[in-house]
């Protein structure tokens, strides 16, 4: 027999029903709380503490860690280099992945093998990939110098990673290389969802390949491009193995980004609190870049 409406049992039953979604959302919320929220809170707390080189907390430091961080002479160059790193790598990755996804979406002999081969840089360890490229770029036994000398482009070996500009360009190329598989497959999945009838209608309207791609394919790929761009921004911003394995941010701080600079502050300078402040700044920069990107995408959608 059902409880009468308005009774104490009925009210309790309604409360229990209202709490039922927590049975399903609870594990996910607990995971987010433990893996995302708590580390961020702890990071901010650490950035406000006075911590010795041995890890002993000596009390509240207020904004002293941030003041020391912003007084670092290398910080402006590191931040600017990080922005160049993120914008350059993500832009190149998205551009090349669009072409790769379009190729892999077409039918040709051996397409399945090409798709499998594209997964290799993604499946392999990023650290091992970066180390392999470092060996390939070595000026004594690297295959890159050997090939360029054999074809007559170089007269003598070049120590590519000894010069900051060249090293940074090669690191960006390697970062694009390891980012391509994921991005290409995200875009490929978006291409697979576009109905063939849409292309048929475009052909009937007299649209050529270029106009069809610009007016049909790209607009329908916006959700996939948005996901790929945001995930790439976060991953590239926090990319540590490529830079550390190839140059360790050197010479000096000439090829550091905020991630490797943060590591050096903590382990080379023994400035744990300052490193935590750099982590907070890095986190804020990621949020800022993502929000700006979302704002630009939304404005373009409103205009179109």
Automatic annotation (TrEMBL):
Signal peptide range in chain numbering: none
PROSITE patterns named among the record's database cross-references: ABC_TM1 (PS50928)
Keyword Transcription regulation: no
Record's keyword terms, sorted: Cell membrane, Membrane, Transmembrane, Transmembrane helix, Transport
Membrane-spanning intervals of the chain: 21-41, 83-104, 116-136, 167-194, 224-246, 275-294
Membrane topology, as annotated: Multi-pass membrane protein
Protein name: Sugar ABC transporter permease
Species of provenance: Streptomyces phaeochromogenes
């Amino acid at each position: 027999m059902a409880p009468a409406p308005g009774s104490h049992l009925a009210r309790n039953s309604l409360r229990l029903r209202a709490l039922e979604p927590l049975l399903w959302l609870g594990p996910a919320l607990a995971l987010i709380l433990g893996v995302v929220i708590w580390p961020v809170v702890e990071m901010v707390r650490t950035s406000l503490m006075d911590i010795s080189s041995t890890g002993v907390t000596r009390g509240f430091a207020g904004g002293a860690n941030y003041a020391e961080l912003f007084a670092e002479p290398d910080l402006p160059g590191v931040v600017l280099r990080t922005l160049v790193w993120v914008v350059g790598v993500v832009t190149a990755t998205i551009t090349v992945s669009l072409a790769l996804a379009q190729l892999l979406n077409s039918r040709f002999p051996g397409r399945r093998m090409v798709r499998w081969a594209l997964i290799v840089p993604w499946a392999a360890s990023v650290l091992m990939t970066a180390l392999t490229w470092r060996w390939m770029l070595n000026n004594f036994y690297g295959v890159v110098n050997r090939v360029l000398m054999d074809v007559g482009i170089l007269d003598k070996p070049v120590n590519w990673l000894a010069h900051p500009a060249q090293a940074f360009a090669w690191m960006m190329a390697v970062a694009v290389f390891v980012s391509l598989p994921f991005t290409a497959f995200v875009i490929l999945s978006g291409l697979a969802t576009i109905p063939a009838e849409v292309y048929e209608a475009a052909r009937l309207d007299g649209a050529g390949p270029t106009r069809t791609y610009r007016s049909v394919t790209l607009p329908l790929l916006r959700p996939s491009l948005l996901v790929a761009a945001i995930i790439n921004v976060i991953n590239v911003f926090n990319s540590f193995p490529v830079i550390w394995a190839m140059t360790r941010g050197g010479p000096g701080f000439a090829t550091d980004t905020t991630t490797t600079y943060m590591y050096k502050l903590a382990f080379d300078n023994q400035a744990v609190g300052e490193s935590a402040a750099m982590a907070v700044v890095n986190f804020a920069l990621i949020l800022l870049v993502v929000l700006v990107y979302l704002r630009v995408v939304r404005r373009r959608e409103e205009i179109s």
